[in-house]
Structure formats: structure tokens, C-alpha cells
Amino acid sequence: MSPPRQPSRDPRLNRGPPGPSCTPLRPTPIRIQDNNPKIPFVQGISDLVNSAVKTGSLQAEKDTLKKGQELAQGLLQKAQGQKAFPSLIEYFQQASDEHRAKLGRLEETSRDLRSQIEQHERDLNNQWTTSISSSSRVDEKQLQDEIKAAKDEAKAAKEDAAQAKAEVSRLTKSNQSMEKTLEDFRQRLEKMERASTGRTADVKYLLETSTKLGAAFNKLDSGELPVEVTNKLCQNVTARIQPQIEGVKHLNTKLDARVAKVEEEFVPLKPLPSKVDDIGGLVQEHAKKLTQSNVDKTVKLYKQINSVVPRLQDMTSRLEKVEAMAARLETVEAMGPRLDTVEVKLDQSKNSVAVPNGSSLSQTGLALERLREFATKQELQIFIDFQKAKDFDVYDELAKVQSSVGDVQKQLDTLKDEHSQRSSQVVALQADSTKFSEQIAAAKAETTRISDEMKHLAPMTALQQLWGTMNTFHQNLEGCRVGMHSLETRYNSLSTEPVVKSMVVAMQEMYPSAGQLTDQVAQLRQRLEEELPTLKQRLDTLSETENDHFNQWQHTAAQRLDDINRLRNDHTSLNHTLTPLWERHAAERKLPSEDDVKNLRTELGLLREKLSSLASQTSEIKTQSNLYKEGNGKSYGELAEKIQTLTAELQGLKDAFKEMKSTNKDNSKIVKDLVGLVDKLGDGLTEITSTNTGNSAVTTLETELKKLGDKSLELMSTNTGNSETLKALEMELKKLGHELAEVKSNHLENFKSHDKDLKTLATNIDDVEDRVLETLEKKLADTLSQALQSNASQPIESQPEDELPAAVLPRQESPVETPRSTVENGSLLPKKKQKKRLRPSGSEDERSSLPSGSSNLVSSPQLSTRETPVEGNRRKKRKKKGDARAEARKEDAILIEDD
């Protein structure tokens, strides 16, 4: 029997062993004929339960939707932080809106379910009160009878439970006695195994020698070995054995002397062999008796076990019955306080209740029976689950009994083996007392006898192998059990030394010594002294950067205020300019006619034709300009050569100026005149570059002239003499100016025709744009008149600026954009440059169709403009020239002040 289990601190080891697989005890369901109609009370309970389940599921869905909404809201906030992905923002916004809508729907359904639950509760309360008030004396008698029957059943169940407990205790005692007997058998078997281990080695050696000798004698008897081979073998054997034989002879001589002495002493011991034989016979008889007695005992034990098995089966069936009775008992005990309350209510209602109808009594009786059956089923299932845990011990004891039967069978097999081994050992001991020849004969007889026995024992080998495997399996299980117990003991005997050591270390860390604290304080002080200057520097830099940022912020704030004020002024001026327009449109309030629309369509067709013709003309002009450039390539080359010669002359002038730095200190007026001439030359060169943009030599000449002018300004402080050389220099510069003028006159004539063509093209484009703008102005005027006609009931003059209608206020973006300008503020036209151009006669008729007040609109100073590409390039060039001249004048003024 295994040692008793001790409670372990590990909860995984406290679980009971698994019992044998058996069908669980389930109560037989009580079939009720459902012929009766539905009871409203039970129906109300089922509706209440269904609504509660629905509310629970809705709550779970609501929680999941809330989590999803929170996640979508967080992602939406992140996406709003990154405004470069508007599609993500829309997606997450839509997801959050969907979650919000679903949550709203779930809230509405949950409210409906709550109202339903409250209604069901009210109905059940009313039905319960009515059923209690309508109970009768017949129901009271039935309930009393049922209570008495239940009490009787509880008493019977208690008695059966007491009997079952007594039976279980008796079975446990019998199992303990059987386990003790099995333990005694095991101890005996262990002793016999220890005694037989020494004999098995000798028996194996004798069997091997006997088989070898038998094989050799069989070969000699059959004559398989030839004579020559046998002679050779004998010679080899004799050669090998000769020294041993001599040694043996020498030993024999010594032994003969000793044997003579022993024989003299052995005379009184001659009757001992007969006594030893008699003792051997007695030992064999005793062994046979022991084996027979062991076999008889095991057979008896096996019969006892076979007789115990049906009793155990009967006990299991009785235990099942007891479980059922105990379940009923527990249900009755659980229903005890309920029945007591029912009795109290019945006693209270005896005097105050009238006799009800029979239908209500039957309905209440059925309801009580169904409730009772439902409660008994649940409590019976709980008790069965509890009883299963208790029955594991009984199943373990049955398994142990079965294992003890297997152990007895194993012991029988081992006893049989020991009997055969002992008999062979006795024969071997008797054979050892004879001489070598007698040993060979005895070995032959022994081999024949063993072979005969093996033939008889051949059918038993398979059974022995099976029992051997079972024995090894049992030994392995015992080893595992011992290991588990050893692990449990180790787990229970764990010491707290490492915990105490860790606590000591933690205490030392929490409360260090004074020396450690002083060292740490010194280290921290040193680190502070090292890091304080760097921190001070960082603070200074941070304060400086903060001041810079503050100043920048103030500057930007001032600029923003200026911009806001400027925009406000622009807004006020626009409002002032727009007032006559609103007045004029309010006065007219006319809609366009069908003739006007037809005229607009015809004009648009003409404009399209003109635009197509202009596009063809521009393509022709471009091709002519390209051909002209290709044809005048030689003139460009000559101009580049001339410019190179001029740059060479300028280099010579630079050298002359360098020589004059040491001598010239007078005549600042001449130098000023020279600077003026240089400015004129620079203007001429800029004009040349504006007409001849492709020549890099001209730009280099211009830069060289600028450098020369700068150096001449530097000479203003140093030139004090040599007026003759300066005059000569002035004359040379005049000559250079004349040459440049000639170059300009020669090459500008070539470009005049090209400029004329471009101007005509620009005028044609401007005419087309003017016509388009005029037609758009008409359309916008019509739309404004319609808007004003719709708002005729509200006078415009009486409205403030903030309350103007959307059709009257200036719009930020107009729906129509032209290639020249964007039409803004209702029917306003963009301000054109004050430049007279020749217009075709058709535009005058179109201009005459405009309202009389359009001249005021065109002349308003606050309207936006848009330039053509040619005008924009010219304006940029003029701005650059003006900036360069202003910088040169500033440098001249500085040099004059230095002089």
C-alpha cells in the first residue's frame, strides 16, 4: 500500500487521482405531459428572463461600440493633426458618426426593454398577490401532505446514507487488511529474490559450459571433424596446456600431501555426505511444500477477490441509490425554510381567505409542482457533481485491489521460477562434489533435462514476458510515485534563507552606512560643480533666444496690425466705390431680352473666329522671328567682335587708371563728369541688352563698365593732378560712347520691325480680351439685376455694411476667370493700364451697349489689375534699372561725403 498523501502547499499536487472512466450519474428527466394550457405567471417569468437576457446582450454590444467609438475618435484627432490627408479625416469622421448612431439606436432599444421589464415585474407582482389571496384550504392540506411525505423521504434518505457510510467504512477496513497482506507478500518476495540472485549466475555459467561441451561431444561422436584437424588441435592444445599441466602437477604433488593429511582427518567425516543428501531431500520437500502453500494461498486470495468484486458492484449500485436519495434529501433540506414560510403564510391566510375556484387551485398547484421539479433538478445536479468528487476514493480502492491481484499473479510466477532455479542449484551442487568425468556426465544429463523442461515450459514463455512487462511498468510507476513524494517533501521543506538574505541586502541598500552617504554626497557635489557652468551658459543662450523670439513676435504682430488696418481701409474704400453701382442697378432693375442674348451669341462666335486667326498670326510671327534670328547671325558675330575690342580698350584704361592712382589727386569735377558719362554708357548698354538679350558679350561689357565706374569713384579721393591725362581719358570715353551709339543705331533698326509686330499682336490680344470682358460684364450685370429684383422689397440704402445680402456684397471668388484678369465684386471690371490703344470699330458698338454708369466703375482706384507677360517683363527690367541707379547714386553720395 502506498504511503498516505500529505497536504501540500502546491495546489497542483492536492488534486485527487483520476478515477476509472465510468458513465456519470445523471438523473432521469421527469416527463410531464404538456396538455395543460400556459400559465400566465410562468409565461410572465419566462418573458422577464428573455427581456433580461436581451438587455445583457445589448449592454455587451454597447460596450463594444463604445470602445470602437473611442478608438475612432482618437484616430480622428490624430488625422486632424495631420491635415495633409483629408480622406482619412473623412473616413474616421464617418466611422465615429456610424458608431454614434448605433449607440443611439441601442439606447432606444435598451430603454424599451427596461420599460418592458418594469411592466413584467408589475404584472408578476399583481399575479403573485392574486394567487396568494386565491389559495384555499384544499391547497393547504395538499401542501401539508407533501411536507410530511418530504420529511419521511428525508428520514429514509438519512438512514440510507448512514448505512452507506457504514458499508463504506467496512470496505475501507477490509481493503486496508488486504493491503497489509499484500505488503507481507511483497516483503517475502523481496527476500527470496535476494537469496536467488547469487544462484542465477552459477546456473548460467553451468548452462553455457554444458551447451559448449554438448556441441563438442556431438561433433566428436558424429565424426564431423577429420583426424588431422583433431590431431592438430590436440597438439596446439597440448602445447598451450603443457606448462599449465606442469604447474598443475606441481600443485597436485602439494595437494596430495595436503590430501593425505585431510584424508586422515576426513575419516570421521565419511558419513556426512549421506547426511547432506538427506538434508537436500528435506530441503526439496520443504520447498515443494512452500510453493504448494503459496499457490494455495494465492488461489484462495484470488477467489476472495473474485467474491469481493460483485459485492463492490452491489455497493456501487447501492451508492448510486444513496446518491439519488441524498440529492432528494438535500433538495428537501433546501426547501425546508421555503416550506416553513409557506406554512406560516397558510396559517396566516386560514382565517382571512375565501374559497376560490377549482381552476385557480389547479393552476397554482401545477405552478408549484413545476417550480419544485425545477429546483430539485438543479439541486440534484449540484449534489451529483459533489458526489462524483467523493467517489474518486472508492474507485481508487477498486483500482488498488485490481493491482494487488496483478501483484499476486506476479508473485506466483516468481515462486515458480525460484522453485526451478533451486532444484537446478541442488543438482549443480551435487555434481560439483564428483570428479571431472562425473561432472561431464552430470552436465549432459542436466542439459537433456533442461531441454526437456524448456520444451514443457515453451507455452509459458509468452505469459512470463507479459508478466515481466507488467512488473517493469509497476516498478516505473512506483519510482514516479516516490519521486513525486520526494519533490513534495522538498517543496514543503524549503527554507527561507534566500528570502532572509535578500531582505538583509534590501535593508542595507535602504539604510546605507555614513561612509557611503558621504562618498555619494561628494560625488554629487563634484558633478554639480562640473555641470553648473554649462547650465548657466545654456540659460543665457535660452534667454537670448527667448528675447529674439519675443522681438520677432512683436515685429510680426505690428506687421499684422498694419496689414489689418490696410485691409480695413481697402474695404471701406471699396464700399464707397460700390455705392453708386448699387444705386444705379437699383434704379434700372431690367432683365436682358432675347435679342441681347442672340447678339451675345453672335459676338461670341465672332470672337472665337478672331481668336483662331490671331493664334495663326502668332504662329507665323514666331516662325518669322526665328528665321530673322537665323539670317542675322553674322551681324551678331560682328557685334561680339566689336564688344571684345571695346573690352580690350577698357582693360587698357584700367591700367592707365592704376598708374594714375599715385599721381592724380586733383580735378574731382572732371572725375564727376566722367562718372556721369559712365552712367550714360551704362544706360545705353542696358538698352542694348534689353533689345539684344542673347549676347553674353554685352552683359560682360556692362559689368566691366560698372567696375570702371566704381573705380573712378574710388579715384575721387586720390586723384589730385594730371588734368591733361584725365582730359585725354575723357575724350577716349566720349569716343567709346560715340561708338556704342553707332552700334546701338545700327542694331536697333533691325529689331524695330520685330517690336512692331509684337506690339500689333499685343494690341489684337488686348482687343479680344476687352471684348470678352465686356460680354462678361453684361452677363454679370444681368445676374446682379435679377438678384436686386428678387430683393426689391428691402432697400439697399437703409442696410448697414454687415447686413448686405449675399448677392450684393463683393464675393471672394468669381465663377468666371479670363486669361487677363479675374472679375470680382459682382459686375466690376478690372482696372486696365492707362494706355491708349487703337481699337476696331466693332468694339465701339459693343461698348455703347454698356450702362451709363460703367465709366465710374472702370475708373475706381481700388480694383485689382493683371498685366500681360510682355508688360510684366518690361516692368521688372525697369525696376532693376531703377534699383541699380539708386545704388550707384548712394555710392556717389558716400564718396562725395568722404572727399
TrEMBL record:
It comes from the Eukaryota. This is Paramyosin. Signal peptide: none annotated. Residues 830-839 have a biased composition (Basic residues). Residues 96-195, 597-663 form a coiled coil. Residues 849-864 have a biased composition (Low complexity). Residues 883-893 have a biased composition (Basic and acidic residues). Keywords: Coiled coil. It comes from Aspergillus terreus. The keyword Coiled coil applies. Residues 1-37, 810-899 are annotated as: Disordered.
